[in-house]
Amino acid sequence: MSTMRRYLPVFHDVLGASVLVVGAGAVGTRKIEALLAGGARVTVVAKELSPAVEERAARGDLTVLRGTFHPDQMEEAELVFAATPDRRLNHRVSAEARRCRIPVNVADSPEECTILLPAVVRGEGFTAAISTGGRHPGAAKALREFLEDHREEITIRLERGRRRKRIAARP
To answer: At residue 16, what are phi and psi to the nearest 5 degrees?
Structure first.
């Protein structure tokens, strides 16, 4: 019997959601950018910020708490992301989020996550998410790239399906 967790694939609306991201290096920055694109209210806890996060903070796109993580910082959080190079700190963030029953994603540590971020492909009229449960990120990336290479074909097939549906619905 497999011990691999079975995650429920879900698209989560983060518009207006309060999200805490611990870490603002390259990985944290990618997560922050995705959350901001989805309309989340992002608070970042970090000693140092990437230039992109510095710029976002200067524009007022997010809140920055400079320094180290403290559990009370997740008081209002609906989602938590641990994205530091410090494995012990990431573990602490994950443990505290779990204790508070807040969904948590830990960069490069799927066993400490209650939510995973899949590889995503967006096209006209569709969003596809690919996950290997965090076990084979390279394979998920390859599948994402394959779908990106075929994005136009997928869009055409979706449009054909919509046309067929409209034709079938005519009296």
So the answer is: 80, -5
Q: Residue 36 in 3-state DSSP?
A: helix
Q: Which residues contact 68 (CB under 8 A, 6 or more apart)?
A: 45, 47, 89
For residue 55, give the 3-state DSSP assignment: helix
First-to-last alpha carbon distance for the chain, in angstroms, is: 53
Q: Kindly state the helix (H) or strand (E) to which residue 140 belongs, with its residue range.
A: helix 137-149
Helix (H) or strand (E) holding 65: strand 63-66
Q: Do residues 52 and 61 lie in contact, with contact meaning Cβ atoms separated by under 8 Å?
A: no
Per-residue pLDDT in tens (0 to 9) along the chain, 171 residues: 445 667 888 889 999 999 999 999 999 999 999 999 999 999 999 999 999 999 999 999 999 999 999 999 999 999 999 999 999 999 999 999 999 999 999 998 989 999 988 888 888 888 888 888 777 888 988 998 999 999 899 888 888 877 776 677 666
Name, in order, each residue with C-beta under 8 angstroms of 72's C-beta and a sequence gap of 6 or more: none
